[in-house]
């Protein structure tokens, strides 16, 4: 298989989209900015495969950025969505499925209570508001390269030292909005202790990806999450474990199932929505009691706990048994081995990193550049051009990868022998393309 690099129907749609939508997309990475070429407009998905507007079929290693644990259009999920839709799309009143989904999440995790929202961004934004309300403190600590959605206070870059305030990372966020945010390097325990020594009593919370997947996969090392737990406990700050990506993706209990560090608040999204907009934040009962309507911290949502989204999420989670996670681990390990072997074969400097079944591949320009990627600075040494060349060749050969070297590759339980052999056929060509780039 070798598709032409032009994709006429997608190109036409992209042009149409660009007239009425900024950049032609509704979320930036979809625009293929990091890899070039025409973003593929998708018309359908089934199991491990996506079909685009030009009728081309791809093995999907994005899985909607994580949610599709069981592949596209799984019959149980589609059935749940169809049945829910037939009963009405939204009531603006409590429903049974919201309770069932909350029970399922609580049963799988260490949290007492959960509040449903519609996106991961809303979940982290609300968790931070709650942490500030609960502690009566202002400062939020985050790590460079960790992404928590497009929350104003979290779109912040590091200041010149731990004692300074963060600066906005984007136009449209003001200094006031990042004034109470501190950004430090991931996996740097010393920086954490130094910060808490200087300003521990101002800190409302530390928010961290349970295991980061938004700067490529960069797992916590040397019990970093435990360090965060100890530092926050000592100073009376809350620890927020952002499991929007890892939650119910890497184990039936998310990252917490692999490393049981008891954060005060957790955020979820992606898998728990089964491909529909549903997300959540939750934690200890005494903290959650501060939320409206019972408590003083306001939070609300017209479509929160939407009956169709909760039906999809519940079906997705009910399918997610321990056997499924074992299979995802095995498929991920096999895939990592295949990619690495092809890249070694072509002499492409690279490093594969994984966390549970999530993994990513860092390409480097020279063998001397290869390193363990521990933080965002390390991640930024990767080769954009080699990744782009690799990506385009995989795409041409019918494999859809995340269109950026800073993203996680997501496997699904639908990857069968046919899908794996298509990937395996494509890899040597993609590795050659990366070697030549
Ligand atoms: C995807 C993601 C978010 C944001 O979720 P949205 O639903 O895109 O708003 C937040 N945190 C992490 C760790 C994520 O991966």
UniProtKB/TrEMBL annotation:
Keywords: Cytoplasm, Isomerase, Porphyrin biosynthesis, Pyridoxal phosphate. One of its GO terms (molecular function) is glutamate-1-semialdehyde 2,1-aminomutase activity. It comes from the Bacteria. Homodimer. One of its GO terms (biological process) is protoporphyrinogen IX biosynthetic process. GO terms for cellular component: cytoplasm. Its cofactor is pyridoxal 5'-phosphate. InterPro entries: 4pyrrol_synth_GluAld_NH2Trfase, Aminotrans_3, Aminotrans_3_PPA_site, PyrdxlP-dep_Trfase, PyrdxlP-dep_Trfase_major, PyrdxlP-dep_Trfase_small. This is Glutamate-1-semialdehyde 2,1-aminomutase. Its main location: cytoplasm. Pathway: Porphyrin-containing compound metabolism; protoporphyrin-IX biosynthesis; 5-aminolevulinate from L-glutamyl-tRNA(Glu): step 2/2. Its EC number is 5.4.3.8. Belongs to the class-III pyridoxal-phosphate-dependent aminotransferase family. HemL subfamily. Pfam families: Aminotran_3 (PF00202). The modification N6-(pyridoxal phosphate)lysine is found at residue 270. It catalyses: (S)-4-amino-5-oxopentanoate = 5-aminolevulinate. It is an enzyme of class 5 (isomerase). It is found in: Cytoplasm.
């Amino acid at each position: 298989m070798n598709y032409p690099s032009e994709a006429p129907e997608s190109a036409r749609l992209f042009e149409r989209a660009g007239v009425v939508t900024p950049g032609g997309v509704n979320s930036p990475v979809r625009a293929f900015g990091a890899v070039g070429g025409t973003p593929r407009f998708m018309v359908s998905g089934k199991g491990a495969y996506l079909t685009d507007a030009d009728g081309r079929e791809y093995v999907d290693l994005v899985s909607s950025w994580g949610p599709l644990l069981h592949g596209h259009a799984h019959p149980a999920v589609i059935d749940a969505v169809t049945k829910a839709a037939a009963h009405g799309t939204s009531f603006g009143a409590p429903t049974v499925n919201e309770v069932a989904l909350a029970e399922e999440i609580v049963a799988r995790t260490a949290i007492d209570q959960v509040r449903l929202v519609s996106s991961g961004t809303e979940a982290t934004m609300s968790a931070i508001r709650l942490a500030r309300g609960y502690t009566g403190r202002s400062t939020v600590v985050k790590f460079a390269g960790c992404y928590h959605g497009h929350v104003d206070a979290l779109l912040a870059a590091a200041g010149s030292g731990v004692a300074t305030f963060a600066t906005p990372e984007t136009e449209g966020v003001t200094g006031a909005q990042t004034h109470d945010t501190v950004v430090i390097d991931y996996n740097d325990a010393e920086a954490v202790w130094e910060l808490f020594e200087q300003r521990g009593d101002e800190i409302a919370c530390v928010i961290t990806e349970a295991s980061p997947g938004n700067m490529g996969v960069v797992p916590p090392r040397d019990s970093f999450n435990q360090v965060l737990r100890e530092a926050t406990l000592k100073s009376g700050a809350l620890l927020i474990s952002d499991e929007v990506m890892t939650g119910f993706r890497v184990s039936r209990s998310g990252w917490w199932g692999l490393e049981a560090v008891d954060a005060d608040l957790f955020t979820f999204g992606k898998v728990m929505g089964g491909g529909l907009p549903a997300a959540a934040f939750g934690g200890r009962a005494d903290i959650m009691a501060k939320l409206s309507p019972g408590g003083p911290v306001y939070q609300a949502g017209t479509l929160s706990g939407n009956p169709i989204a909760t039906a999809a999420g519940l079906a997705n989670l009910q399918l997610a048994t321990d056997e499924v996670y074992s299979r995802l681990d095995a498929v991920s390990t096999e895939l990592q081995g295949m990619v690495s072997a092809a890249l070694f074969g072509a002499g492409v400097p690279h490093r594969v990193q994984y966390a549970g079944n999530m993994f990513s591949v860092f390409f480097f320009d020279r063998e001397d550049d290869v390193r363990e990627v521990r933080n965002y600075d390390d991640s930024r040494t990767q080769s954009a051009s080699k990744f782009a060349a690799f990506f385009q060749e995989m795409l041409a050969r019918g494999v859809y990868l995340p269109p950026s070297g800073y993203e996680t590759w997501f496997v699904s339980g639908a990857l069968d022998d046919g899908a794996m052999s298509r990937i395996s056929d494509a890899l040597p060509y993609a590795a050659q393309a990366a070697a030549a780039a």
